[in-house]
Amino acid sequence: AQVLFLFILYSGIIFMTFEDIVVNMCNTYSCPYNWFLRLEIFFYRLYPRALRWAMAMAYAIKQINEQNVLLPNITLGHAIYDSCFGVPNTVEAALDYLEPGADNNEPCYFGAVVGAYGSTLSVTLSRFMTLFCIPQLTYASGCKCLSDKRVFPSFLRTFPSDKHQASALADLVQHFGWLYVGTLAVNDDFGRSGVAQFIAEAEDNGVCLAFREILPKVRSDLLIQNLGRIVQRTKANTILLYTNEPDLFPFVEEIIMRNITDKTWLATHPWVSSPILGKKRYAEIFQGSIGFILRRGIVPGLQEFLKSLKPQVTLDYKTSFFRTGLSTDQKRTSSPDHRLCTGNEKLDEVESSFTDISQLRFTYNTYMAVNSVAHALHDLHICIPGEGPFGNGSCAHLHDLKPWQLLLYIRKVRFVNNLGENYHFDGNGDSPGVYELLNWQSNDKGSMEFKMVGTYDLRAPINHKLQVNDVPISVCNEACPSGTRTITLTGQPFCCFDCIACREGEFSNGSEDCIRCPKYFWSNEERSICMPMPEDFMALYDPIALILIILASIALLLTFSVGAIMLQKRESPVVNVTNRHVVGLLLLSVLCSLMSCILFVGKCSTFSVLFRLLFPGKPQMSLMKYFSDFGIICTCVIPQFIYCTIWAIAGFPHVIMNTNMQPGRIVIECAGASLAWPLCAVIYFVLIASVCLGLALKSRNLPVAFNEPKFITFTMMICFLVLFAFVPAYSSTQGKFSLATEMFAIIALSYNLIGCIFMPKCYIRGGSGRDKTVGNRHIR
Fold first, then answer.
1. Residue 281, Cα to own-chain centre: how many angstroms?
2. Is 632 exposed, middle or buried, given 0-12, 13-18 or 19+ CB atoms closer than 10 A?
3. What is the pTM of this model?
4. Which domains does the chain have, with CATH numbers?
5. pLDDT tens figures, 259-297
6. Among 198, 184, 174, which residue's Cα sits nearest to residue 263?
7. For residues 32 and 53, what is the distance between their CA atoms, to the nearest angstrom?
């Protein structure tokens, strides 16, 4: 015999009306075989999408009955109630549902409930259904509290738990580096639990909370105005609106009045695809908003079914339902002479969100809820006695079906949906899902379009769930530019900061702190990168070096000239009397001193350092004038040569790259391990010069013909003057200027020797033919 099974789809028109709309829904029963729905609607505006959800339920039942595959010889029926998005209507409908047939004394076998819209209403409804273990499937209730099977054992949903949405939003904030976010949550289970989880996860990721406020469930102008002030004053660029769509409208009007257009709104699934908020009036406010919503589905044949509906078949109306209800997108006039519907209007001739199937989300969820129950009934119907899920392998029977038996089958149902995916409920009664990330973008008409810019797949691995394109950032302050670092503002959250420039030698490139440049590198003027330091040394093209080299070259020419004259007149009495061999050594000493100046020019090297140390001194050569043998040479020169050799080995003279002398520059200089080495060399220089000066002064009383002591005296005095000027000048200069001081001292001493010792010897006047005696020598 054919068996007819009836079940109720609760709150089919779940959010059918708003803005003080009154809806009266009356049901006439013809149980147990057929139910027909009679609606008397008095309204200002109808919500077409919610009506589409209800009609999707009716279409799913019609499709199952006509295909006669899942439930052969079984016909499904339905009854639709309206919660009016309120707890009182929900309670009234629940009580009416639990007493079916009370008015007509005919038995109606109710199997399952589908609804309601929103977590608060679903919780209210579930309190009643749980008492009788009646399976309840909702398509738009995300509160994670409903996953607790100890409290809601008969509750299931084709919509993912909001714990996934809160996690998705927290991951989104982390992905884009949004450090400063405010939250507004509706004052119900959906808003409070969802935003609490979001805040917990976001703060773990380092997000700073600008504010945490509650949207009133019952309209309060004072509270709404206060929320408007908070949003207007906050520095946060991104604000999360964790709320249902109807609870959002009073706040939106306040935002429009305050003209707050510089915020990016994070949207939750109840309003992220709202066609009302997407209209041109709200475009300037919500442009750029972003949020997650359940992935779109496909219901083949639904659009044709919706367009085939006619008022006289579906509704007993007293107003122009199709004109002002379904054609909500058409431009209306305020004329009182509206033409009433005849009942023969064609919906394919108008543009309405009722027949728009491009965004089937909640509609697809209701469709899947009906199919889940149908597949559960199919599993129940094909149960083989002895292999059933109940005691002793028994099976349930459709003519005597208990709600808890159907609940067991729905929990275990598994089937392949029309998208080719395995569909089932987990242990908490939740279904897996994939979120789409929608971004609100303006179109040519000035209204909003919902563009998919990413996905969040709950089935993917943890680090690969979020796939998203780049969108704007949100921080208390804009990120500090390159070359600056952050400094926390006193009394502000940690993510509020100011930007100050990095110090010299430091750089930053998008980081919060300045980083010290590596050795031998220096930051550029913008402090954004590090560049190799310029090297500072006595270069050949340096003006000071050029002047000193010219002076040294002139001195070299004079030295060679004196040497040439001495060589030419080597047999003359003047040259002979001065011991030309010693004079030659003295000239060689001056020549080497002048040539050593060349080693000061250019970049220092190990060779130049050692050569400077090993070069012999000058004043000790003057001492040779008083001795006829070369013993004095060994006495004066060899100790200094030995000392310089030890200095070169033990003192470890080397080239250093000095970066402390001039910030941002490398001063290349020669240095040793200790200042004691050059100090001892200077002391030895002073000692030899003092001996020379003493001997010269002691010989000042010689005959007039012996002018040599006078010249040596002048030479030593000038040496001391140069020395006294050199010491303070050298100690007060650095880098190439100290080298220039040293070069100048050497050149000055060389000119001193040339001018006071050698130039007088070049004045040779030819003899008159008479013999003159100079000491024991005769000059002709």
1. 34
2. middle
3. 0.54
4. 22-159+297-330+344-424 (3.40.50.2300), 162-295+433-468 (3.40.50.2300), 484-532 (no CATH), 543-779 (1.20.1070)
5. 998 888 999 988 998 888 888 888 888 888 899 988 889
6. 184
7. 25
